[in-house]
Inverse folding.
């Protein structure tokens, strides 16, 4: 079974368990083709993954993230989809695709 904890447990890796961690997100703006969300407790690695995959998506016009002050601010990601496209659906699709890519890794 998967562990649903923010604590990284090395013993679980040795036993072959799945480590699951949830990402806290808050929607700051959702208007038409624009979406801005705040992502808690994440760093450049995760944000860069989202940005690069979203910018490579055919239905995204622009995507970037803003980290703010490292000790005071949670980073935000801004997404602008092409006219008539839903940025939420695209984000969910990109996250699902990335999850699938990483789930096939073996250690």
């Amino acid at each position: 079974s998967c562990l649903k904890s923010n604590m990284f447990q090395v013993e679980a890796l040795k036993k072959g368990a799945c480590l699951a961690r949830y990402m806290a997100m808050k929607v700051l703006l959702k208007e038409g083709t624009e979406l801005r969300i705040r992502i808690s407790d994440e760093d450049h690695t995760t944000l860069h993954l989202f940005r690069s995959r979203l910018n490579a998506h055919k239905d995204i016009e622009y995507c970037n993230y803003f980290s703010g002050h490292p000790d005071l601010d949670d980073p935000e990601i801004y997404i602008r989809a092409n006219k008539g496209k839903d940025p939420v659906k695209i984000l969910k699709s990109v996250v699902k695709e990335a999850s699938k890519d990483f789930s096939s890794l073996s250690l």
